[in-house]
Amino acid sequence: MQIPQLIQQGRPFVSLEFFPPKKQEDWPRFIEVAKELQQLRPLFASVTYGAGGSTQSNTLEICEQLIDACGFEIMPHLTGVTADPDKINGFLDAIRAMGVDNVLALRGDRPVGYPGTDAELFAAFPYASDLVRYIRSRHAELAIGVAGFPEAHAEAPSIAADLEVMEQKVANGADFAITQLYFDNRVYFDYVERLRARGVTMPIIPGVLPIRSLASLRFTLQLCNAKVPGLMVHRLMKAHEEGGASAVYRIGVDYAREQIRELLAKGAPGVHLYTLNKADMCLEIMDGLLEP
Questions:
Q1: Strand, coil or helix: what is 246?
Q2: Residue 226: which pLDDT band, with cuts at 50, 70 and 90?
Q3: Is residue 292 part of a domain?
Q4: How many domains does the chain have?
Q5: Is residue 253 within 8 Å of 281, Cβ to Cβ?
């Protein structure tokens, strides 16, 4: 079923994001983690694609395994970076053959070590909106999700320009958005308000990344431009000094729980949880936050 139709059912929800393990020997454990998370009754699960489609085949196989083993409504990611229409067509045909009704259309980031120019890298699909338009022209039956950036994309010249990019995605056929991670709910609600003022009415699902450790936080911040509130940094550093890694983990759980509780209380349709392919923290965070 299309994700916008599922959202229209009206109950607050959690959705999950997974990334395909690169080594196939790690797949059985990954599927066990996914099975553990079935108890959250996720509205859908998304599966990342990899820079330049580097894990495209893994994405398709993992999607199929998640459907078979867990019965999840699946949304694979699809990036336009280094892609051509034939490659995109093959991927879309493959997911439709699986019965998948949703796809997340992304421009994608420059692969590490790529020697070519941006013109070569994004030749066929310079922007995510171009990929959205292409998917819509080929598969009208698919629901298309896109990325939203409450603190603006790192390459956007201004917040206003970033909002215009989202308007173009909608004009080209986007049906809903999932935000990049952030740590201050005010930026999410402000982002939604600004989009609504521009006539963007589609669902905007907030993305939440639990902080598992200081190392994982540093790694994540290298990949995006999310801002960490100073008070939160202070709490994490103090927790690490006084209690080590376990204290940081506890702060991460408590902070994510409060973030999600506030989002749902103030009208967010649900939350998209970046799982990092771990079940324990996700289960602790969501315990009791949704109706049984």
A1: helix
A2: confident
A3: no
A4: 1
A5: yes
pTM (predicted TM-score): 0.94
- Phi and psi at residue 90, in whole multiples of 5°? -60, -40
- 119 Cβ contact list (under 8 Å, min separation 6): none
- Contacts of 277 by beta carbon, 8 Å cutoff, 6+ apart: 18, 19, 21, 30, 33
> Among 205, 253, 284, 239, which residue's Cα sits nearest to residue 12?
205
Residue-range definition of the domain harbouring residue 84: 3-286
Q: What is the pLDDT of residues 185-201, one digit of tens each?
A: 999 999 999 999 999 99
Give me the pLDDT at residue 52, please.
43
Spatial distance between the Cα atoms of 116 and 110, rounded to a whole number of angstroms: 10
| Segment holding 74, helix H or strand E | strand 74-79
Flag whether 291 is in a domain. Answer: no
Rounded mean pLDDT, 132-136? 98
279 φ, ψ to 5°?
-95, -35
Distance CA 99, CA 117 (A): 36
Residues 6+ apart with CB under 8 A from 183: 226, 227, 228, 229, 232, 255, 259
Q: What is the CATH number of the domain that holds 221?
A: 3.20.20.220
| 15: β partners | 272
Strands (E), 138-281: 143-148, 176-179, 204-205, 207-208, 270-274
3-state class of 255 per DSSP? helix
Catalytic residue list? 17
